[in-house]
Specification:
87% helix; mainly alpha; 4 helices; rod-shaped; 0% strand; 75 residues
């Protein structure tokens, strides 16, 4: 009984910590999507050129570089 009470108390306290508005969730998803695009662009550019400067530029352009690579890559 005591463990059940402790569990319920923990759940009631933690609800306010995990409660989040919808807008904050949307912003997090968008920011993570941009980060994934930049990381993918840097890794693609590094595997092709082995240059830090061009990889940094690809990271700035992010998804644009990934789309560019998909269009011009050798098949």
């Amino acid at each position: 009984m005591k463990t059940l009470f402790n569990f319920l108390l923990f759940m009631l306290i933690s609800i306010s910590c995990y409660a989040d508005s919808t807008q904050q969730v949307k912003n997090t998803v968008v920011y993570n999507g941009i980060g994934i695009g930049s990381a993918l662009a840097v890794s693609i550019c590094w595997s092709r050129t082995h240059s830090v400067l061009t990889s940094a530029l690809a990271g700035l352009f992010g998804w644009l570089y990934v789309i560019y690579y998909l269009i011009i890559r050798d098949r």
